[in-house]
Amino acid sequence: MIIFIEMMNSIREFIDTGGQVLTVIAGVICLMWFLIFERLYFFLGTYKRVRDHIIHSWNARDDKSSWNAEQIRMAHVSRITEQLNKNVALIQSLVVLCPLLGLLGTVTGMIEVFDVMAISGSGNARSMASGVSKATIPTMAGMVGSLSGVFMVTWLQRKTKRRTEQMEDSLLMIH
Predict the structure, then answer these.
(1) What is the pLDDT of residues 148-164, one digit of tens each?
(2) Ramachandran assignment for 122, one of left (phi > 0), alpha (psi -120 to 50 degrees), beta (any other)
């Protein structure tokens, strides 16, 4: 319990050092990773049941060669592709948003530095330190969040493409 309290205090101090923009970045990153974990849960668990249900319903059909059968096959593939792609565009948007929010943190931190310089009339490093940290920490956090998301989005897109192709191969047309 003491370790958890110390960890939470460290996180709070880090967020305070980065300013309000860092809180927004943390929220965006948490939402992004929540959606990524939801996709992982689907890919590693739910997908198999959905796939098996579609394949079973296809194999139970007598007609696998007509134009109607082709349309039903395409509908099955489209449904599974839609389920595989769910929230991926939102995750991509959050990945793009992270560095932009980091840039916003840089701008707000530099404004604070310039305010300190205008008020004090000098370039005292100690008085500017808070603004500099509010300028650099959100930038770093936005880039780290974005990079972690880029790798996962790429993996999700690759898996979606592969599983869509596998589904097309599983639903054979008999000519």
Answers:
(1) 999 999 999 999 999 99
(2) beta
Cα atoms in the Cβ-side hemisphere of radius 13 Å centred on 91? 24
Q: Is residue 175 very low, low, confident or very high in pLDDT (cuts 50, 70, 90)?
A: low
Nearest CA to 141 out of 108, 105, 173 is that of 105
Measured distance CA(149)–CA(91) in Å, rounded: 8
- Least Cα distance to 135 among 120, 115, 150, 119 occurs for 115
> How many Å separate Cα 21 from the centre of its chain?
18
SS3 of residue 59 by DSSP: helix
pLDDT score for 152? 94
d(CA 92, CA 20) in angstroms, rounded, equals 23
- Domain range list for the chain: 2-170
